[in-house]
Amino acid sequence: MPLRSDWSQRSCSMARGLDILGDPWSILVLREVFFGNGRFDAMKSRLEVADSVLTKRLAGLVESGLLAKKAYDDGGRTRQEYVLTPKGEDALPVLNAVTIWAEKHLPAPSDQAHLYVIHTGCGEPTTSADTCTRCGERLTAANTSWHSRSRSEQPIPLSTAAREGTAA
């Protein structure tokens, strides 16, 4: 018996979207890749997740077309890292919305436990998932940073989708 229902063929767009983006581990995996953390061991360490759980979520995100595998040489052998696809990059407003909602409505356990969405164009935090509330510019992975003081004192620019013929 499957752990959850397959909603991929539902008539409701929200249900179809949740079929892919409704799993917390999948959202957290995407967060790591947006932070530029696309290697299995680095994700496993940061997420504190079992190999089997991470492997399953990565496979699902690749199968759904949100992530792609990219070969890299670790000095001894060729390994795979995960990079965003344009479809995966388009999920940014969903991750931003969850973050902004949580910052507004849920208490943080410490001062280090905040994540802010920053529009790098004007350098200001935003309270909108897809548009800068300060200057009105549309937010994209290329012009957005996330500021997590548990990772860095400065906002971290987000990774963008690997485009054919360009570096990731």
Q: Which overall shape is indicated by the principal axes computed on the Cα atoms?
A: globular
Order of helices and strands: HHHHEEHHEEEE
Helix content estimate: 25-40%
Give the overall pLDDT as a whole number: 92
Largest β-sheet summary: 4 strands, antiparallel
Low-confidence stretches: none
Q: Evaluate the radius of gyration.
A: 16 Å
Protein described:
The chain has 168 residues and is α+β, with helices and mostly antiparallel strands. Helix content is 35%, strand content 17%. The chain is built from six helices and six strands. The protein has helices spanning 13-21, 24-34, 40-47, 51-63, 86-89, 92-105, and strands spanning 67-73, 78-84, 115-119, 124-125, 144-148, 156-157. It has a four-stranded antiparallel sheet, with helices on one face. The longest helix has 14 residues, at 92-105. The protein is globular, with a radius of gyration of 16 Å. The termini are far apart. The model has no long low-confidence stretch (mean pLDDT 92).
Brief digest:
This protein is 35% helix and 17% strand.
